[in-house]
Structures are given as C-alpha cells and as structure tokens.
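Entry 14. Structure prediction run on the chain below.
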Amino acid sequence: MSEATTPEAPTPVLDPFAEALRGLPGVVAVAMERDERILLATRDNLVGLMAILRRDPRFAFEQCMDVCGVDWPQRTERFDVVYNLLSVTRNDRLRVIVGTDEIAAVPSVTSVWPGTAWWEREVFDLFGITFAGLADHRRIMTDYGFEGHPLRKDFPLTGYVELRYDEEQKRVVYEKVALTQEFRSFDFLSPWEAMTTLPGDEKAYRPAEPDPQPKPGAKP
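Output returned:
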C-alpha cells in the first residue's frame, strides 16, 4: 500500500489589477478590506504615484474625493494621511495611505489634483501634519490664533483658550477655558437601555384584591 500524500494547498488566484498596483513605484502593499482596495505608499514617491494613478489609463483615478488624517499615538510614525480616489471611467475606488510623524512633511498632491489644497489645509489644522509644496498653510477649521491641533488624541479635552465678544471692550477677546460644571461620568446607554422600569409596571406585581361583592349563586 502506497504512503498517503498530503495534498498541496491550492495556488491563490492573483488579482491582475492588484498586481499592476503592486508594481508601481512607491507602493508598499495592496490589500482588500471590507470590499475596498487599500494601497500603502511611501512619502518620497507619493506625487509620482498619484500622477500615474490619475493619468495612466490602466487606473484612471480621475478624482480625489477626500483627504483626511488618522492619529496612532503608539506608533513611531503616528499619523496616516488617507487619500480616497475615484475612477469614474472604471467605476472603481482606491484608498491610498501614507504615514508620517510630527516633523516630516508629506508631499502635497495639489500638482495632480489642485482641489486637494482645501483638504490638506484641513488636515494641517486638525492634526498638525505639514505638506511640502502646499502654498497655503493657514488654518481652515479653527481660528487663526488657535493653539494646538484638536484631532490629535493627546489634545486636552478642555482645549487651551476660548474666545468671545466683549461688549465693554467692543472686540473679540481670548480667555482661558472656564467650565461651568465639572466633568461627569456617563454610561452612554440609550434612553431605552437605561430605563429599567416604565410607568404602570407596578400593576404587574400588585396582588389581586378580593371582590367585595359576592357573585350571585356563590357559596358564602
């Protein structure tokens, strides 16, 4: 009787489009997550990579729909800059992610999609990530005199300062944040989960009262 042989694992079917993406300069990895293709890229080759993704007919990602940031404080490169691309020609989407730290600037992609200047300003304002080649680094969501970046996960919950219009001075003034009440602990339950009793529940536990009027024909 011949020895039993272990069957070999089936060879995975390679995705031709993913293989084409992996071959581009600056691509670290390509993966699928929740039916969406994700591409990890390096900072140095970002602009060239984005130009290929937009202009090469194999990819044809004509539009950059959004640019946002993600903060991972435990990592050395704590920030991710995420670009959500759309191909109208092929009806396809791609998420491009590049990492950076608090110092290194990410190359601006405004030369590929001029409209991304607005989102890059927003990412700078909220996370403090700078973009090399971005002409305008003014704040866009917070006030120009605001200190810090609100969406960093180490940003203090009360902020630094608040502004209001002072009627006596006839101008906007900055003051330290003053809380009208102390922080409280919340259970974050919905109103339905937090309600353990409802009006009328006491009737279900009330003992039945004897009938004061005996029924006709009943024995005493």
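The two ends are 93 Å apart (CA to CA).
Filed with the rest of this week's runs.
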